[in-house]
Amino acid sequence: MPPLGPSCRCRRPTANFRAMLDERRSLVLQALVEEYIRTGEPVSSQTILERTGLEVSSATIRNDLAKLESYGFVTQPHTSAGRVPTHQGYRFYVDHIEPGNIRARTRARIEAFFSDMHRELGRLLEETTGLLAEVTSYPAVVLGPGIEEDVIHGIDLVRLGGRAVLLVVVAESGRVIQQVVELETEPTERQLAKAEGALEFAFSGKRISEVGEGVPLSELSEKVREIVRPVQETLRSSSARTREVYVGGTSQLARLWNDLAVVRRLLAMLEAEASIARLLDAEGTEPAVRFAAELGDEVDVAVVSAGFDSGSLGQGRVGVIGPTRMDYRRTMRVVEEVGESLEEQLGGDR
Fold this sequence. Notes:
This protein has helices spanning 23-39, 45-52, 58-70, 87-96, 104-114, 121-136, 189-203, 222-238, 253-256, 260-271, 273-280, 328-346, and strands at residues 74-75, 84-85, 140-143, 152-161, 164-171, 176-182, 245-248, 288-291, 302-309, 315-322. The protein has 3 domains: 17-96, Winged helix-like DNA-binding domain superfamily/Winged helix DNA-binding domain (Arc Repressor Mutant, subunit A), CATH 1.10.10; 104-146 and 244-346, GAF domain (Beta-Lactamase, 2-Layer Sandwich); 148-238, Heat-inducible transcription repressor hrca homolog, domain 3 (Enolase-like, domain 1, 2-Layer Sandwich). The two termini are 31 Å apart. A hairpin with a 2-residue loop joins strand 4 (152-161) and strand 5. By secondary structure, the protein is an alpha+beta fold. It is elongated, with a radius of gyration of 26 Å. The strands form 3 sheets. A 5-stranded antiparallel sheet has the order 7-3-10-9-8. It has a 3-stranded antiparallel sheet with strand order 4-5-6. Strands 1-2 form a two-stranded antiparallel ribbon. Helix 1 crosses helix 3 (58-70).
């Protein structure tokens, strides 16, 4: 993972950070978390003194660490070792820090990527995961806007054989919805063509959420009605379908987690769109951090995400997945920058 600079000095805590802890203990916790992120080793009181520059004794810092341990923010793996942050300590930390600065090279790479204005939505969101994985060195995910506000551009019915038909809906955003529809009887090409024409006439130019009983069934033959009815129902159910999830940078998993069982579990999680959507779920466009442990899963995973507004299509989210020992300051800022750039290209209004 990208290391924190060894000479990184802690910022003075904000007023919110001091709400639960006094300023010194807030600074001690902040220093401990950032040093542990940097090294992966338990942090001693002497290291905290050097990192913070506080003009107090090591004994005072040890007392502060004991108090933080009583709050559940840190723990001591061995009696002779320093402390490490707990999940609660990480949560307190990420809730009260400000995103860090973004490197000029990273900003230039993001600007160059979004200078290309000629990509349809699905391709843009998919390629954004590659960009985010590249500039953060973490696996990246994008949760697309809901499809219910997408406008239907065209409808195709493709015969698959037997009673199965493939429904293909092309939206004006460039997104494509494909679903297999099982009919009551095997259709002919002529019947499919008539059903397709009736559906296109009724629904082209409408939002997917507006799809209803729009086809004048009385004007169609019974065989064509037998095609149109289940296709209409499939179209209606599409508006409530899970949003598209795009994943990139999965090759980073083995580098970040040495445990093969954990890597397999994470791959399964990435393939389960509902799991990703749950981890990315957050309100607004500001950066947010979620931990798998908060959702009842003890796997060592944190997700940093930010929202983007795509205008008429609604909101989506971009994010990265990493271990809890993540450089949150830098990652939050980069994810926020990508979300803002994506929103600007999609014509959203922040």
